[in-house]
Automatic annotation (TrEMBL):
<feature type="domain" description="Luciferase-like">
    <location>
        <begin position="5"/>
        <end position="325"/>
    </location>
</feature>
<keyword id="KW-0560">Oxidoreductase</keyword>
<dbReference type="InterPro" id="IPR011251">
    <property type="entry name" value="Luciferase-like_dom"/>
</dbReference>
<keyword id="KW-0503">Monooxygenase</keyword>
<comment type="function">
    <text>Catalyzes the desulfonation of aliphatic sulfonates.</text>
</comment>
<protein>
    <recommendedName>
        <fullName>Alkanesulfonate monooxygenase</fullName>
        <ecNumber>1.14.14.5</ecNumber>
    </recommendedName>
</protein>
<dbReference type="GO" id="GO:0004497">
    <property type="term" value="F:monooxygenase activity"/>
</dbReference>
<keyword id="KW-0288">FMN</keyword>
<dbReference type="InterPro" id="IPR019911">
    <property type="entry name" value="Alkanesulphonate_mOase_FMN-dep"/>
</dbReference>
<comment type="similarity">
    <text>Belongs to the SsuD family.</text>
</comment>
<keyword id="KW-0285">Flavoprotein</keyword>
<dbReference type="Pfam" id="PF00296">
    <property type="entry name" value="Bac_luciferase"/>
</dbReference>
<dbReference type="InterPro" id="IPR036661">
    <property type="entry name" value="Luciferase-like_sf"/>
</dbReference>
<dbReference type="InterPro" id="IPR050172">
    <property type="entry name" value="SsuD_RutA_monooxygenase"/>
</dbReference>
Length: 382
């Protein structure tokens, strides 16, 4: 099975070390453009753009990068509760047209009560999922060309419609991740691809089975994806050294503060991530080559696959065997790590990607590319 491999745009910041300003990079448009263009050229299928008050706006970032990329797709956050579903449908269709069909959308209900309150959303966990279901029903139908009247508990629209349709038909695909029962019910009814964070394969298999059964009960099929960091090097020893270096500036107080802040989240997925390490740095390999060090201070995706190319590829294939066809990777810092992943991991996987640009067949001082009609025969046959 060919795999869809996406990369990540660090609109909340980037650097060489976690939990410190040392080696941190300013995230400006030029840097995001560098990462997006690298991902585009290297053959990543798309980029995930995060959302939240610590991030640049995902929609504006995507729109700004459309003109400077060619094939790259943009997985943009869709936030129920803080925008009308009809307005969001118009924005989605516009982005899809402007990008010539390169727009994807990631439904994000949110898990930080403080942030949600700051955005004017005061619903509890269960109510947010109720509102998300209503939002998504309207959003999907409007994008698919229907005129919608909807009288829900949280959202009411009358005569909602779209005059200018998206390029992708019947509409751009919808991605979504959530570990609670309510989240799985939403996924089974509404989305094309269900995302999980990087838990051990046995836990991921359980979630996939649950969502697949729920979708089948509604006569639907759902694809599956996973969100992971990657630390890949030429040898396993170098990869594990890089993992330790990434958290080398973390002290116990920094970890404790980060975990206390993340503990206020009502996200079941975040709780599952935290349970992998429990704030301790002495037992971070939670499954073979699956390392939970990132989650000591980072919310959301907190695990990384660590190893050389063949080792990480073997772990990726274990997840693929469970039914996962889409992998959203990231690594610190994101520009350099995009090259490492493409150079060290891609050759060991069946990656579904566009053909990269060629350099004309000339000999590089870093390796030979042979073109018989340009090079002397003695060189071309070396």
């Amino acid at each position: 099975m060919s795999l869809n491999i996406f990369w990540f745009l660090p609109t909340h910041g980037d650097g060489k070390y976690l939990g410190t300003a040392q080696g941190a990079r300013a995230v400006d448009h030029g840097y995001l453009q560098q990462i997006a263009q690298a991902a585009d050229r290297l053959g990543f299928g798309g980029v995930l753009i995060p959302t939240g008050r610590s991030c640049e706006d995902s929609w504006l970032v995507a729109a700004s990068l459309i003109p400077v990329t060619e094939r790259l797709k943009f997985l943009v956050a869709l936030r129920p509760g803080i925008i009308s579903p009809t307005v969001a449908a118009r924005q989605a269709a516009t982005l899809d047209r402007l990008s010539n069909g390169r727009a994807l959308f990631n439904l994000v209900t949110g898990g930080d009560p403080d942030e949600l309150a700051g955005d004017g959303l005061h619903l509890n966990h269960q109510e947010r999922y109720e509102a998300s279901v209503e939002f998504t029903r309207i959003w999907r139908k409007v994008l698919e060309g229907e005129e919608v009247d909807y009288d829900g508990k949280h959202i009411q629209v009358k005569g909602a419609k779209l005059l200018y349709p998206p390029i992708q038909q019947p509409r751009p695909p919808l991605y979504f991740g959530g570990s609670s029962e309510a989240a799985q019910d939403l996924a089974a009814e509404q989305v094309e691809l269900y995302l999980t964070w990087g838990e051990p394969p046995s836990a991921v298999a359980e979630k996939i089975a649950q969502v697949r059964d729920k979708a089948a009960a509604q006569g639907r099929e759902v694809r599956f994806g996973i969100r992971l960091h990657v630390i890949v090097r030429e040898t396993n020893a170098q990869a594990w050294d890089a993992a330790e270096k990434l958290i080398s500036h973390l002290d116990d107080d920094t970890i404790a503060r980060a975990q206390a802040s993340l503990a206020r989240f009502d996200s079941v997925g975040q709780q599952r991530m935290a349970a992998l390490h429990n704030g301790r740095r002495d037992k971070l390999e939670v499954s073979p080559n699956l390392w939970a060090g990132v989650g000591l201070v980072r919310g959301g995706a907190g695990t990384a696959l660590v190893g050389d190319g063949p080792t990480v590829a073997a772990r990726v294939k274990e997840y693929a065997a469970l039914g996962i066809d889409t992998f959203i990777f990231s690594g610190y810092p994101h520009l350099e790590e995009s090259y490492r992943v493409a150079e060290l991991l891609f050759p060991h996987l069946d990656v579904q990607r566009p053909q990269p640009a060629t350099s004309g067949g000339y000999v590089s001082p870093f390796g030979e590319m042979v073109a018989n009609d340009i090079l002397p025969k003695s060189v071309a046959q070396r």
